[in-house]
C-alpha cells in the first residue's frame, strides 16, 4: 500500500511540475512542419521523417483524422519500430478514437500475445483498412527565436501501418495521412504530451507552401486573432455559423438549418480534404441565388458553369486588389454580428481559364452530413489556431489584408514577425 501511495504522489507531483513549467513558459521549441499543395489533387501534403534510419515521408493532411497512418512496407524496415500489444494502454488509447474498432468489436478486443489492430481511414476515398498500431521515432522541424531549421526527434510515437493498397486516391508520392484531429494519438496531441507543449496547434495553408505549428508561439498574428467556440465530435472540428451575408445582406436561411439538428449534425465543419466549400443543397439554392444577384449588381457577367462549380463568371472587367478579384464578399456570422469569418477575392474565386472564374462554393447534395463544410480554398492564407485546452478556434481571416501569407512561415528572413 505504501508503494502505491508513493507512486500516486509521484504522479501528482509530476503533473503539477509539468503544469508549472507550462505556466512559467519552459517549453521546448515550437514544431514547424512544412505543408505543400499538390496541384494535381489539390491535397495538402506535409513531410516528416521517421524510423531508423530516418527517412522522409510525405503525408496528406487530414484535419479531422485521429491518427497518423502510413504504408510502412513502402520503405526499408525500421530497426526501431515496435508493434503494440492488443492488451496495452496505448492500444486502448487508439481504440477509444477508432470508429472502425467500434464497428468491429469482435476483432478489436484484448487478446493475449496479439498485436493491436486499428482501422485507419482514408479521407479521400472514404475507405478504412486494417492496420497495425506501432511506435517508432519521428523527426520534425523546430524553430527558436534565432534560427529556423532545427530538428526535434520524438521517440515512441504512435501511428498505424496500413497496406500499400490503402494509398489509393492520395497525391503522387504520399505514403499515408497525417491526422490533426482532437484525439490523444493525433500528431498535435502526441507532440503536446511528449514535448510539454500547450494543447494548441496552428494550421496555415496556402496555394504553395504552408505550415503546421505546435508549441508555444506567442506571435504578432495570433495576438490579433478573432475567436469562436470550437465544437468537436469524435475528432472532427466544427464551428457554429448562425447566418450568412453576401455584400452585407443577410440570406433568408433559418438559423436551425445552419446549426445542425437532433440527428447529430454539428454545424459547419472544417476540412482539409474538401478542396472547396460544400453547402447542403437547400441552403446552396438560396446562397447561389443571392450571390448571382450581388454579382449582377457589380456588373459581373455570368457564363456557363464549369464542373464541379455551379456559378461561373467572366473575369473581363472585374477589378483586382491585394485580396484578389473584386467580387461579392461572403460573411459567415458566428456567435454575434460582430464576429464573422469574411471570405472574399482569392478565397472565393477559382480561375478555370483565361477569361472565366468560378465561385469556390459547390452544391454538396441533400445528404451532406454537415450544413456547410469549409474546404481548403477558403482556409488558405487564413491562420487558424486550434486551442483544444479552451475549445476555441482563432482565425485571422485573409492574411493578405496584413500584406503577408502563410508561405511567409518558411522564409527565414520574415519568420520573426510571427514569433
What does the model show?
The chain has 419 residues and is an alpha+beta fold. The protein is built from 9 helices and 32 strands. The longest helix is centred in the N-terminal third of the chain and has 23 residues, at 2-24. The radius of gyration is 22 Å and the shape is globular. The relative contact order is 0.14.
Topology:
Layout (H helix, E strand, L loop, with lengths): L1 H23 L6 E7 L6 E7 L4 E8 L6 E2 L11 E2 L5 H8 L2 H5 L1 H4 L8 E2 L2 E2 L4 E2 L2 E13 L4 E14 L12 E6 L7 H9 L4 E5 L4 E6 L11 E4 L1 E3 L2 E4 L3 E4 L2 E2 L4 H4 L9 E3 L6 E4 H17 L4 E2 L8 E3 L5 E2 L2 E2 L4 E4 L6 E4 L5 E5 L2 E4 L1 E5 L6 E3 L1 H4 L2 E6 L4 E7 L13 H4 L4
Parallel strand pairs: 3-11, 4-10, 19-30, 20-29
Antiparallel strand pairs: 1-2, 1-9, 1-13, 2-3, 2-9, 4-11, 5-9, 6-9, 7-8, 9-10, 12-13, 12-31, 14-32, 15-16, 16-19, 17-18, 17-25, 20-30, 21-22, 22-28, 23-24, 25-26, 27-28, 31-32
Structure summary:
The protein is built from nine helices and 32 strands. The protein has 419 residues and is α+β, with helices and mostly antiparallel strands. The strands form six sheets. Strands 1, 2, 3, 4, 5, 6, 9, 10, 11, 12, 13, 14, 31 and 32 form a 14-stranded mixed β-sheet that branches. Strands 15-16-19-30-20-29 form a six-stranded mixed β-sheet.
Structural class of the secondary structure composition?
alpha+beta
The dominant shape is globular
Biggest β-sheet description: 14 strands, mixed
Helical coverage, percent range: 10-25%
What is the number of beta strands? 32
Distance between the termini: 49 Å
Low-confidence stretches: 1-27, 101-108, 412-419
Give the rounded overall mean pLDDT.
86
Rg result: 22 Å
